[in-house]
Amino acid sequence: MQFIILSGGSGKRLWPLSNDVRSKQFLKMLPGEAEEPESMIMRVYRQIMAVAGEAGVTIATGKKQVSAIKNQLGDKVNICVEPDRRDTFPAVCLSAAYLRDEQGASEEEAVVICPVDPYVEPGYFQALGEMAGLAGKGAARLVLMGIEPTYPSEKYGYIIPLSQEPVSGVKTFREKPDLETAREYLRQGALWNGGVFACKLGYLLERARERFGVSDYRSLYEKYEALERISFDYAVVEGEQSICVLRYRGTWKDIGTWNTFAETMERQTLGRVTLNETCENTHVVNELNIPILCMGCKNMVIAASGDGILVSDKEQSSYIKPFVEEMTGQVMYAEKSWGSFTVLDVQEESMTIRVVLKPGNSLHYHSHEHRNEVWTVAEGRGTVVLDGKERKVQPGDVVSMPAGCKHTVYAETQLQLIEVQLGRGISVEDKVKHER
Amino acid sequence: MQFIILSGGSGKRLWPLSNDVRSKQFLKMLPGEAEEPESMIMRVYRQIMAVAGEAGVTIATGKKQVSAIKNQLGDKVNICVEPDRRDTFPAVCLSAAYLRDEQGASEEEAVVICPVDPYVEPGYFQALGEMAGLAGKGAARLVLMGIEPTYPSEKYGYIIPLSQEPVSGVKTFREKPDLETAREYLRQGALWNGGVFACKLGYLLERARERFGVSDYRSLYEKYEALERISFDYAVVEGEQSICVLRYRGTWKDIGTWNTFAETMERQTLGRVTLNETCENTHVVNELNIPILCMGCKNMVIAASGDGILVSDKEQSSYIKPFVEEMTGQVMYAEKSWGSFTVLDVQEESMTIRVVLKPGNSLHYHSHEHRNEVWTVAEGRGTVVLDGKERKVQPGDVVSMPAGCKHTVYAETQLQLIEVQLGRGISVEDKVKHER
User: Fold this and answer.
1) A211, HSE (Cβ side, Cα atoms, 13 Å)
2) Which residues from chain B sit within 8 angstroms of residue A381, using beta carbons?
C-alpha cells in the first residue's frame, strides 16, 4: 500500500506563524505523544504508521518545503518534489510516476491520496486502509471518503451516496454549494468530500497519459511547468463512472484557519503569555522573546512571531488571507536544512541576523556582490572558509567578508553567528554560489 | 513666578511603552504643534511658556529621568534631582531649597507646584497664573485648584468650598471617598483636588524646617534618603487653615491609564498597524518593526514595544499594574543622554544590542569584568578608544573588546553599532567606569 500526502499551500491563513517558507503543516503546536508538541505532518505520518506500518509514504510538495520535511521526518518518507505548483492533478500524476519509475512500485498496487492538514482521530487512517483494500480488490476504479456532515457547510464539496451503507455507490458529486442547497443535500443524506482518494497506481498513470500524453516520471517532471493547473476532483472524479464511497463518522477538522486551529491546541497559551482572569475563550501563541499580557480578551486568537502580530476575534480570523497578501514583508524566520535564521534588525543600510547551524552542517559556499558581511561567533566551534582559506573559529571570534569574498562556515558543534550585513539595497537575490 | 513640575513615577500603567527608564511623561504620542507628536512633559512646558513666558520652570525628578528631560527640553528648564524617591512632600521641599539656594529665588516669590501628567487645555495654565497671583498677594497662605467634577469619582480627593465663587475659602478637604460619599460631595458642590498648589517660596521652606529640622538645599539633599515618605497633601494641606481654592472648569484628564491615554491620541494607530473594517473603538501603538494586524477588535487597546505586548479591553487596562510588577524583564529599549540602545536578541551566553550615538556624543570610558564585546559599525563615523589607543572607524569596521579592555567610542556623525556581548551571566551590573 502506498500513501501520497499532498503537502501544498503557503498557509497564509495561519499568519504570522506560517509564511512562504514555513507552511502551517510544519508548526509544532499540536498535542503530540510524550508531551512533545508535534506538527500536522508529524501527526499524519505517526497516525499512518500506527495503522499501516508497512506502507510506503510519499510526500508531494514544492522545493521550499523539502528542508522542513527532512528536519521533521528524517529520511523515513519519500519526497516527490514538484518543480512548480500546478494544483493537485499534476502533483498526483508526478507522484504516481515517481512511485513506479523511481521507487519500483507496481501498477497494481493500491494508492491512497490524502491532504496533509485534516485533524483526525486514528479511525480515519483505518478508513484509509479500508479504502486501499476496496481499490486493490477492484470494488470500483476510484474510492472516495465521505465524511458524515455535522452542519450544512458551504466550504466543502458533497457526495450523494446511493445508499446509507458503510460502502456505497455514488449518485452525484457536487462542488461547494450555497447554504440552501447544502441543507437540501443534508436532507438527501449527502456526505462531505474529504479530499481523499484511493485507486490502483496504474489508474493514475492512465489518467496522466490521457490528459498530458505521457506518464513517465522524467517526461512529466520536465514538462511540469507547462502542465495544466487543474484539481484532481475536476480532472478525474467528476468524469469517473466507477466510484464508490466509504463513510467516515469520526472527528474530522479542517485546521486551516486560526479559529479551528485554536480548537486543537492542548493549552490556551504557548510561549511567554499572561492571561488575566477576565479573559475568555482566548488562545495565544507567542514565539517572540518578549511577554504578551492579555486583559479582558474574549473569543480571541493572538499570535506573534518574527513576521508580525495578529490580534483577532476568532470568527473574524477566517478572513485573514487578503490582509496577509498585502503584507509582502521580509521573511523574519526560516528553518533550513542546515539550521535556521532569524532577522533581528533591519535598518536602511544594514541588517542583523542570527544564524544557527546544526552540528555537521555548512552553508553553501557563496559571495555577495553588493554587501559586506561581518560574523561574530556567539556560540559553538567551527571552520570558516574565506576565498579558499580555512580558519577555526570559537565564541568571540570575528570574521569580516567584504563584497566579492567567497565564504562559508562548517559547524563542528551547534554554531551561532550574529551576522551584520552592510550596504545599500541589501537583497536575498544578491548571492552567487560557488563550487569548493 | 516659579513652576515646580513633579515628574515622578515609573509609569507601569502604560506598559509596555513606559518602563523603569522611560516614564509615561516622555512618550511622544500626544498631538503636538506642526504635526510633530509631543510628550506630556513637552506639552506641559509648551503650555506654561504660552501663558507665562518669563516664569522659571524647575522639574523635580529622579536620576533616571535626567537624560530624557534634557533630550526633550534641552537646557531650558532647571532640574532638581532627588537622590531617592520619597513621595511629594520631600520632593517639594528639596525643590524649594534648590530654588532659593542654587537659583537665588526670593522667599517672597510665588511658586506653583503641579504634576506632569494631566492632559489639559491652555485655560488651565492661565488658572495656574491666577493662583500664583493670589499666593503672591497673600490672599491665603496656600492656594489650591478645584476642578469642577464631571462624575462622582472614587479616584480623586475632594475640596468642599465655602462658596460657588471663582475663588473661595475651603470648608473641608477629603481624601478619595467611596461612591456614595462622592455623590454626596457632588450634591454639596465639592470640587476635585487637582494636585496643584500655589504659595510663597518661604512658606514651603518653613514647612520643611518644621518637619525635617532643616531647609537648606545641601542639608536636605544629604539626608534625603532618610526623610519621611509623605505626600504634600498629608504633610501640608490637611493641617493648613489659611487655604483658598480657585475653580477650573475646562478639560482635565488624568492620562495615567491606557483607557484615558487612548482618548488623547489624535489617530487610532501609531506605527505599522492594519485594522480591518470590523474593528471598533480600538487604539493601537506599535513601536516594533513588524506589522500588527487587528481583526474584529472592539473597545481594545493594543501596544507593542521591545519590552512586551499588551492586548487589553480598554476598561480592563486600568488594572494592569500588578501584572506589570511581576514582569521583571530586561529593559529592551532606553533613551540615554548620548543616544539610545535597543536589545535585539538575548541568548544564554550572548546578547545583541543596537547602540545609536548622537553626533558629538560618546559613551563613558568603561570595561567589563566578565564579558567580551564586539562592535560592528553599521552606520556613521567616529573614534574608538581601546586601552588608551585611538582608532577611527567607519561602516563595516569591527572592534573586539575582551573582558578587562577599557573602551569607549566618540561619534563624529550619528553612529550606529551592533554590539554582541559574550559570556556567562551577562549583567548591567558588570561595568567599571574609568577616567580618561
Assistant:
1) 24
2) none
